[in-house]
Task: structure prediction
Amino acid sequence: MDSDEVVSGLRTVPEFRFLTNHGNALLLIARDPRIRIRDIAALLDIPERAAQRIVADLVKAGYIDSERQGRRNVYSVRADRPFNLPFQRDIDINALLGILAHITDPGGSSPD
Result:
C-alpha cells in the first residue's frame, strides 16, 4: 500500500461511531446545558422520542441533573460520576469531557 492509499483511507468517514448516542448526548449537554431535546435529536440524527429516552436514562443513572427554568430544562453534568467500564473503574466523566474539550477546542479550557 502506498502513501496515497493510506492518506485517502484516513479521509474516509467510518461506518461506526466511537461513542454511543448516550455518550454523544452527554457531550452535547456538557457543551450547552440549555440545549433542547429537539436539538440533541437533530445533531445525533435520531427521533426526538429517542433523545428524550436517552436524556431520561442519563438523569436516572445520575450522570446529569435536570432543572426546569420557565419553559426550558437546564442540565448540569455530574462530572464526578464514574464510567461503567469493566476494565477501568477509576475514570470519571470529567476525564472524558476534558479530553474531548481539548480536541474540539485546542485553546479552550475543560468543561466544569
Observations:
- The helical segments are 3-11, 21-31, 37-44, 48-60, 93-104.
